[in-house]
Amino acid sequence: MKFAYLWLDVATFLCPFLLSFDKKVKYFSAWRSALLASFIIAIPFLIWDAVFTAQGFWGFNPDYITGVYLFGLPIEEVLFFFVVPFACTFIYEVCKYFFRQYSLELFNKGFKILLPVYAISLLMLGDSGYYTLSVQISYSLVLIWMLLKSEYRHVPLAFCISLIPFLLMNGVLTGSVTTEPIVWYNEGQKVAPRIFTIPMEDVLYSFTLVVSNILVFEFFQKRRAL
After folding, report:
1. First-residue to last-residue Cα distance in the chain
2. What residues are paired with 185 via a beta bridge?
3. Are the C-beta atoms of 56 and 129 separated by less than 8 Å?
4. Using 50, 70 and 90 to split pLDDT, how confident is the model at 1?
5. Which helix (H) or strand (E) holds 89?
6. Is the pTM of this model over 0.85?
7. Please, are residues 57 and 186 in contact by the beta-carbon 8 Å criterion?
8. Summary mean pLDDT of the chain
9. For 50-103, how does the pLDDT look when each residue is reduced to its tens digit (9 = 90+)?
10. Annotated domain spans of the chain
11. Is the dihedral of CA 141, 147, 149, 152 positive or negative?
12. CB 12 within 8 A of CB 87
Protein backbone atom coordinates (compact mmCIF):
# COMPACT_ATOMS: atom_id res chain seq x y z
CA MET A 1 0.00 0.00 0.00
CA LYS A 2 3.09 2.25 -0.01
CA PHE A 3 2.15 3.62 -3.43
CA ALA A 4 -1.61 3.85 -2.84
CA TYR A 5 -1.84 7.62 -3.39
CA LEU A 6 0.42 7.45 -6.45
CA TRP A 7 -1.71 4.71 -8.00
CA LEU A 8 -4.79 6.87 -7.46
CA ASP A 9 -3.11 9.70 -9.36
CA VAL A 10 -2.15 7.35 -12.19
CA ALA A 11 -5.66 5.92 -12.48
CA THR A 12 -7.19 9.41 -12.43
CA PHE A 13 -4.93 10.48 -15.28
CA LEU A 14 -5.12 7.34 -17.41
CA CYS A 15 -8.91 7.23 -17.82
CA PRO A 16 -9.29 10.63 -19.55
CA PHE A 17 -5.94 10.21 -21.30
CA LEU A 18 -7.01 6.98 -23.00
CA LEU A 19 -10.42 8.41 -23.87
CA SER A 20 -8.89 11.63 -25.23
CA PHE A 21 -8.60 10.13 -28.70
CA ASP A 22 -12.34 9.64 -29.12
CA LYS A 23 -13.21 11.01 -32.56
CA LYS A 24 -16.21 12.97 -31.26
CA VAL A 25 -14.73 14.85 -28.31
CA LYS A 26 -11.07 14.95 -29.46
CA TYR A 27 -9.79 16.02 -26.05
CA PHE A 28 -6.21 15.41 -27.18
CA SER A 29 -6.43 18.60 -29.25
CA ALA A 30 -7.10 20.58 -26.04
CA TRP A 31 -4.29 19.09 -23.94
CA ARG A 32 -2.17 22.22 -24.17
CA SER A 33 -4.93 24.45 -22.83
CA ALA A 34 -5.82 21.92 -20.12
CA LEU A 35 -2.23 21.62 -18.90
CA LEU A 36 -1.64 25.38 -18.98
CA ALA A 37 -4.80 25.94 -16.97
CA SER A 38 -3.87 23.31 -14.40
CA PHE A 39 -0.37 24.76 -14.03
CA ILE A 40 -1.72 28.27 -13.38
CA ILE A 41 -4.43 27.19 -10.94
CA ALA A 42 -2.08 24.74 -9.19
CA ILE A 43 0.08 27.62 -7.93
CA PRO A 44 -2.42 29.12 -5.43
CA PHE A 45 -3.69 25.65 -4.49
CA LEU A 46 -0.17 24.40 -3.74
CA ILE A 47 0.50 27.47 -1.59
CA TRP A 48 -2.80 26.89 0.23
CA ASP A 49 -1.95 23.22 0.65
CA ALA A 50 1.59 23.83 1.87
CA VAL A 51 0.50 26.42 4.44
CA PHE A 52 -2.30 24.24 5.84
CA THR A 53 -0.01 21.19 5.94
CA ALA A 54 2.66 23.16 7.81
CA GLN A 55 0.03 24.36 10.28
CA GLY A 56 -1.22 20.82 10.89
CA PHE A 57 -4.69 21.45 9.48
CA TRP A 58 -4.25 18.28 7.42
CA GLY A 59 -1.47 15.83 6.68
CA PHE A 60 -0.43 12.63 4.94
CA ASN A 61 0.03 9.10 6.22
CA PRO A 62 3.62 7.98 5.42
CA ASP A 63 2.43 4.38 5.06
CA TYR A 64 0.66 5.21 1.78
CA ILE A 65 3.04 7.62 0.02
CA THR A 66 6.43 7.23 -1.63
CA GLY A 67 8.22 9.65 0.69
CA VAL A 68 9.26 11.99 -2.13
CA TYR A 69 8.43 15.61 -1.27
CA LEU A 70 8.21 18.83 -3.28
CA PHE A 71 7.45 22.23 -1.73
CA GLY A 72 6.97 20.42 1.58
CA LEU A 73 4.21 18.25 0.08
CA PRO A 74 4.23 14.60 -1.01
CA ILE A 75 4.81 14.35 -4.75
CA GLU A 76 1.46 12.55 -4.98
CA GLU A 77 -0.30 15.61 -3.57
CA VAL A 78 1.43 17.88 -6.07
CA LEU A 79 0.37 15.58 -8.93
CA PHE A 80 -3.21 15.69 -7.60
CA PHE A 81 -3.51 19.32 -8.74
CA PHE A 82 -2.65 18.34 -12.30
CA VAL A 83 -4.34 14.98 -12.83
CA VAL A 84 -7.68 15.92 -11.22
CA PRO A 85 -8.16 19.11 -13.30
CA PHE A 86 -7.04 17.20 -16.42
CA ALA A 87 -9.72 14.58 -15.77
CA CYS A 88 -12.45 17.08 -14.84
CA THR A 89 -11.77 19.28 -17.86
CA PHE A 90 -12.20 16.15 -19.97
CA ILE A 91 -15.63 15.68 -18.37
CA TYR A 92 -16.43 19.30 -19.25
CA GLU A 93 -15.49 18.76 -22.90
CA VAL A 94 -17.66 15.62 -22.99
CA CYS A 95 -20.58 17.60 -21.56
CA LYS A 96 -20.11 20.33 -24.16
CA TYR A 97 -20.35 17.77 -26.94
CA PHE A 98 -23.14 15.49 -25.74
CA PHE A 99 -25.30 18.22 -24.20
CA ARG A 100 -24.67 20.85 -26.88
CA GLN A 101 -28.33 20.91 -27.93
CA TYR A 102 -29.69 21.38 -24.39
CA SER A 103 -30.14 24.83 -22.84
CA LEU A 104 -29.66 23.53 -19.27
CA GLU A 105 -31.25 26.77 -18.09
CA LEU A 106 -33.40 25.15 -15.38
CA PHE A 107 -30.52 22.98 -14.17
CA ASN A 108 -28.22 26.00 -13.91
CA LYS A 109 -30.79 28.05 -12.02
CA GLY A 110 -31.17 25.25 -9.50
CA PHE A 111 -27.41 24.94 -9.20
CA LYS A 112 -27.00 28.67 -8.46
CA ILE A 113 -29.42 28.24 -5.55
CA LEU A 114 -28.40 24.85 -4.17
CA LEU A 115 -24.64 25.38 -4.03
CA PRO A 116 -24.89 28.51 -1.83
CA VAL A 117 -27.50 26.73 0.31
CA TYR A 118 -25.03 23.89 0.81
CA ALA A 119 -22.28 26.37 1.70
CA ILE A 120 -24.48 28.18 4.21
CA SER A 121 -25.52 24.89 5.78
CA LEU A 122 -21.89 24.21 6.69
CA LEU A 123 -21.89 27.31 8.87
CA MET A 124 -24.96 26.02 10.71
CA LEU A 125 -23.48 22.64 11.65
CA GLY A 126 -21.64 23.83 14.71
CA ASP A 127 -18.05 24.88 15.26
CA SER A 128 -15.94 25.30 12.15
CA GLY A 129 -12.34 26.21 11.49
CA TYR A 130 -9.92 27.69 9.01
CA TYR A 131 -10.60 25.00 6.41
CA THR A 132 -14.32 25.81 6.48
CA LEU A 133 -13.60 29.53 6.25
CA SER A 134 -11.08 29.17 3.44
CA VAL A 135 -13.39 27.11 1.22
CA GLN A 136 -16.27 29.51 1.87
CA ILE A 137 -14.19 32.41 0.57
CA SER A 138 -12.58 30.56 -2.34
CA TYR A 139 -15.80 28.97 -3.60
CA SER A 140 -17.60 32.34 -3.41
CA LEU A 141 -14.95 34.04 -5.53
CA VAL A 142 -15.02 31.29 -8.17
CA LEU A 143 -18.83 31.24 -8.22
CA ILE A 144 -18.91 34.99 -8.86
CA TRP A 145 -16.24 34.56 -11.55
CA MET A 146 -18.32 31.85 -13.22
CA LEU A 147 -21.53 33.90 -13.11
CA LEU A 148 -19.77 36.86 -14.70
CA LYS A 149 -18.83 34.76 -17.71
CA SER A 150 -21.07 35.20 -20.73
CA GLU A 151 -21.03 31.47 -21.44
CA TYR A 152 -20.91 28.93 -18.64
CA ARG A 153 -23.84 26.75 -19.69
CA HIS A 154 -22.09 23.39 -19.28
CA VAL A 155 -19.92 24.24 -16.28
CA PRO A 156 -22.42 23.36 -13.50
CA LEU A 157 -23.31 20.05 -15.15
CA ALA A 158 -19.65 19.16 -15.66
CA PHE A 159 -18.90 19.97 -12.04
CA CYS A 160 -21.80 17.83 -10.76
CA ILE A 161 -20.68 14.87 -12.87
CA SER A 162 -17.06 15.37 -11.80
CA LEU A 163 -18.16 15.06 -8.17
CA ILE A 164 -18.64 11.31 -8.73
CA PRO A 165 -14.97 10.47 -9.46
CA PHE A 166 -13.76 13.27 -7.19
CA LEU A 167 -15.67 11.95 -4.19
CA LEU A 168 -14.67 8.37 -4.99
CA MET A 169 -11.02 9.41 -4.98
CA ASN A 170 -11.47 11.47 -1.82
CA GLY A 171 -13.25 8.56 -0.21
CA VAL A 172 -10.20 6.39 -0.73
CA LEU A 173 -7.89 9.17 0.46
CA THR A 174 -9.88 9.71 3.65
CA GLY A 175 -9.97 6.06 4.69
CA SER A 176 -13.00 4.41 3.13
CA VAL A 177 -10.99 1.37 1.99
CA THR A 178 -7.79 1.62 4.04
CA THR A 179 -7.07 0.89 7.69
CA GLU A 180 -5.95 4.49 8.24
CA PRO A 181 -6.70 7.53 6.06
CA ILE A 182 -4.12 8.45 3.46
CA VAL A 183 -4.97 12.10 4.07
CA TRP A 184 -6.03 13.07 7.60
CA TYR A 185 -7.78 16.26 8.72
CA ASN A 186 -7.56 18.24 11.94
CA GLU A 187 -11.10 18.03 13.29
CA GLY A 188 -10.73 21.43 14.90
CA GLN A 189 -10.40 23.11 11.49
CA LYS A 190 -13.59 21.74 9.90
CA VAL A 191 -17.19 20.91 10.70
CA ALA A 192 -17.70 17.56 12.40
CA PRO A 193 -20.17 15.87 9.98
CA ARG A 194 -18.75 14.09 6.95
CA ILE A 195 -20.05 12.60 3.73
CA PHE A 196 -19.13 9.04 4.71
CA THR A 197 -15.39 9.60 5.37
CA ILE A 198 -15.12 12.83 3.33
CA PRO A 199 -15.12 16.29 4.94
CA MET A 200 -18.20 18.22 3.82
CA GLU A 201 -15.98 21.15 2.89
CA ASP A 202 -14.42 19.06 0.12
CA VAL A 203 -17.46 19.69 -2.10
CA LEU A 204 -16.71 23.41 -2.09
CA TYR A 205 -12.98 22.73 -2.39
CA SER A 206 -13.74 20.61 -5.44
CA PHE A 207 -15.88 23.36 -6.95
CA THR A 208 -13.09 25.88 -6.48
CA LEU A 209 -10.45 23.62 -8.05
CA VAL A 210 -12.51 22.19 -10.91
CA VAL A 211 -14.41 25.29 -12.02
CA SER A 212 -11.43 27.65 -11.83
CA ASN A 213 -9.53 25.24 -14.07
CA ILE A 214 -12.41 25.04 -16.54
CA LEU A 215 -12.71 28.83 -16.73
CA VAL A 216 -8.99 29.28 -17.41
CA PHE A 217 -9.11 26.37 -19.87
CA GLU A 218 -11.92 28.12 -21.78
CA PHE A 219 -9.87 31.32 -21.89
CA PHE A 220 -6.96 29.53 -23.56
CA GLN A 221 -9.26 27.66 -25.92
CA LYS A 222 -10.87 30.87 -27.11
CA ARG A 223 -7.49 32.48 -27.63
CA ARG A 224 -6.41 29.53 -29.76
CA ALA A 225 -9.53 29.89 -31.86
CA LEU A 226 -8.80 33.52 -32.76
Report:
1. 48
2. 58
3. no
4. confident
5. helix 75-98
6. yes
7. yes
8. 96
9. 999 999 999 999 999 999 999 899 999 999 999 999 999 999 999 999 999 999
10. 4-225
11. positive
12. yes
